[in-house]
Write a structure and sequence with these properties.
Blueprint: E1 16-18, E2 21-23, E3 30-31, E4 58-60, E5 64-65, E6 72-73, E7 78-79, E8 83-84, E9 92-96, E10 100-104, E11 109-111
Antiparallel strand pairs: 1-2, 2-3, 4-7, 4-11, 5-6, 8-9, 9-10
Family: Belongs to the YjdM family.
Domain Protein YjdM N-terminal: 3-32
Domain Protein YjdM C-terminal: 45-112
Length: 112
């Protein structure tokens, strides 16, 4: 029997296979052994399913209101040099020209 890899999220050695997926019984994390994994153990995908990486350029696919101000990030705004994070519900740290530093969700961007 082949040795299964440890869980990329909690490093538990008790992962087991369920079909094509691997599952950790300790933290309930599921992952595909063929899918590339980031350092945090999470893959980031845009609204179209393309994998995102640090330094990518993305385009906003929906008008986004900026909380606490009257500014709006318009559809089609290009955001260069994104940084992927695992903090809170927002996955992308970036700086948008004319607005400043922001956090975005991957579901509202597509890879440019």
């Amino acid at each position: 029997m082949s040795q299964l890899p440890a869980c990329p999220q909690c490093e538990s050695p008790y992962a087991y296979a369920d079909g094509a997926m691997l599952i950790c019984p300790e933290c309930a994390y599921e992952w595909s052994p063929n899918e590339p994994i980031t350092e945090s153990g999470k893959t980031y995908r845009d609204a179209n399913g393309n994998e995102l990486q640090d330094g990518d350029t993305v385009t906003v696919i929906k008008d986004l209101k900026v909380k606490g101000s009257s500014l709006v990030v318009k559809v089609g705004t290009k955001v260069k040099n994104i940084r992927l994070t695992d903090e809170g519900d927002h996955d992308i740290d970036c700086k948008i020209d004319g607005i400043g530093p922001m956090k975005l969700k991957t579901e509202f961007v597509k890879k440019a």
